[in-house]
Amino acid sequence: MAVSVKSKREIEIMRDAGKILGTVLNELGRKIQPGITTHLIDQMGNEMIRSYGCQPSFLGYDGYPASICVSVNEEVVHGIPSRKRVLREGDIVSLDAGVIYKGYQSDAARTFAVGKISSEAERLINVTQQSFFEGIRFAKEGCHLYEISNAIAEYNESNGYSVIRDLVGHGIGTSLHEEPQIPNFRQERRGIRLYEGMTLAIEPMVAAGGYAVNWLDDDWTVVTADRSLSAHYENTVLVTKNGPEILSLVEE
Ligand code: MF3
Ligand code: CO
């Protein structure tokens, strides 16, 4: 299947989906504090998503058992919420969520501080987020896909971090994962040409140490092999002739 270009009508729906998802992540971010369980985050997220008339797209996806992926510290992505996992002061926690609205998907992630965190953890979160913004400067008609990948890689690596290579961003639309795959590490080729109407989930996953990862025995949770801290930042982005339109970001 080729990369799809969305119609005006589809883009309108994806804007609405993204606005809801951005709002949910902002609201969840405000609830993050020492003492809450990762299960409570999932439960609140599920309720918020449904309260806006959306479905949580991760719940049941490939058998994933929750609505929000909650990944703490050395966990990169796909952490499974648990009643036994209590957030503690100094942790960093990545929340990744997806919604379905009128048949269309939006996908976004943020890493939040739990109480007061180390300056090194703070820097990892900020660099990861900024690398997304460096990458999307190329989400513009006429640019090529891997200009995004290379900009993300370059920004993280010049700050002394590694980008995870076993997981990538992706096209998004009526399905959570559509073509193309969007690596966050340097590519030799320039990749496909970008056109207005393409919708991309761009998601740098960054480690303070090396890029190698392991999967925990739950078969979902991805952790850094060296157990260094990891952060994640993702938005659903529309490519236009003038540059990126970030669909899933709601400024607070
Ligand atoms: N946000 C993830 C991604 O971009 C999806 C999580 S996988 C799921 O691929 F199973 F939890 F849905
Ligand atoms: Co994604």
SSE order and pairing:
Blueprint lengths: L7 H24 L6 H14 L3 E2 L11 E5 L2 E3 L14 E10 L2 E10 L5 H18 L8 H14 L3 E2 L5 E3 L6 E5 L16 E4 L2 E3 L5 E3 L6 E3 L5 E3 L2 E6 L2 E4 L6
Antiparallel strand pairs: 1-4, 2-4, 3-12, 4-5, 6-10, 7-8, 7-9, 9-14, 10-13, 11-12, 14-15
Helix pairs in contact: 1-2, 3-4
Cobalt (II) ion binds next to loops.
Stretches where pLDDT falls below 50 for ≥5 residues?
none
Tell me the domain tally: 1
CATH fold call: Creatine Amidinohydrolase
Specify the CATH class: Alpha Beta
How many helices? The count is 4
What does the overall shape look like? Answer: globular
H and E order: HHEEEEEHHEEEEEEEEEE
| Whole-number mean pLDDT | 98
Task: Please give the radius of gyration in angstroms.
Answer: 17 Å
End-to-end distance: 37 Å
Strand arrangement within the widest β-sheet reads 8-7-9-14-15
Approximate strand percentage: 25-35%
Describe this protein with a few key phrases.
about 250 residues, alpha+beta, Creatine Amidinohydrolase, four-stranded antiparallel β-sheet, 15 strands, globular, binds cobalt (II) ion
